[in-house]
Amino acid sequence: MKKIGLAFAFLGILGSTTMAQKIEFEEYDLPNGLHVILHQDHSAPVVVTSVMYHVGAKDEQPDRTGFAHFFEHLLFEGTENIDRGEWFKIVSSNGGKNNANTSDDRTYYYEVFPSNNLELGLWMESERLMHPVINQIGVDTQNEVVKEEKRLRVDNQPYGNLLKAVKKHMFKNHPYRWTTIGEMEHLDAAKLDEFQAFFKKFYVTTNAVLVVAGDFQTEQAKKWIADYFGAIPKQEAPAKKQFEEAPITQEIHANWEDPNVQLPMMVTAYRTPSMKTKEARALDMISTLLSDGKSSRLYKRLVDTEKKALDVGAFNFSQEDYGTYFIYALPVGETPLTDLSDAFADEIKKLQTELISEREYEKLLNKFENQFVNSNSNVEGVAHSLATYYLLYKDVNLVNNELDLYRSITREEIRDVAKKYLNPNQRLVLEYGPEKN
């Protein structure tokens, strides 16, 4: 789980304006239902093998949170053919690197190897799926690892519980109401057979996508994929439960105390639609307009002109089922937090009643083109995009045409989305501050 800092680094948009290159890919299914996507890129002698599973924190039980993230760690413990503690040694000794990450919606594993080690990468990922060793030693070891991660990245990190503080108010029924890293007492209480059952349910071929991207020969790759993954039995993907949230119709006020902070933070948040919608993309554009860079509206107003905030930001935390739109700021001196939330509302009101200028609109499109190009500027980024667009968006072609969706959003649609989702009666107003004596 990525830590949260004041800058919210994933909001950054880097790079210069370039034209997006068309990404060629091939996709097919193995007889056991595993979906495979291949993307050749011979510009560098490297290859990525990655598998994304459609299992995240939202697939957990309320009294067993943290399971999906726990498996991100547990499945590096070893397999029937890879001794415990040897996974990372094998990767590094063969010139590679590997990692994994988990969200509320999915879990992603990948290796990057010199291209002559493609077979090794495929074998290792097939081992993870087919022959993992899930025993009490591994569970106990990784339980301590996860606890330490939570202490470092959440509990002892300034503003580290911001997502938790917001989620519990945004969602009452949906599993998005808890965090990806979960609660440690839930992991402590879980029995070994619960971990084994979780793996058996969600780590199946029909609930995953395998992506190979980089410098390889297609026919050889297909043969190895069939050799290493073809023998895995087919099992139907688990049915996904659907959770509906009643609309938020009245402003919510809440407080959160954090012993790791000295400055309070004012946060407002709104529930927004699925990341698959055009409206979610319009909200992405609104957040860029409000807070991306020193020329953005909220920064110019609160930091430069009124000097009421040390930092300010806005972002649409998009997810598969719903999203959450955040606006936050740190006050200067004794500035009342209500001054900040009032300014947020005022700037949103302008978006709801006035079309953004043509110049602002062109600037937005340029930034999103830069972001889109940079996200696919190397084979690691392409592999992740291909897996994500297939598994969560159900449209791999978005790897080439999602930018067109952003370009199709008009100034009028930006105004209308702000009017639909960012109203005072739909928001949470959260004062996130120091622990009180």
From TrEMBL:
GO terms for biological process: proteolysis. It holds the Pfam family Peptidase_M16. Residues 192-367 form the Peptidase M16 C-terminal domain. InterPro entries: Metalloenz_LuxS/M16, Pept_M16_N, Peptidase_M16, Peptidase_M16_C. Coiled coil: none annotated. GO terms for molecular function: metal ion binding; metallopeptidase activity. Residues 36-180 form the Peptidase M16 N-terminal domain. The keyword Magnesium does not apply. Keywords: Hydrolase, Metalloprotease, Protease, Zinc. Belongs to the peptidase M16 family. This is Insulinase family protein. It comes from Moheibacter lacus.
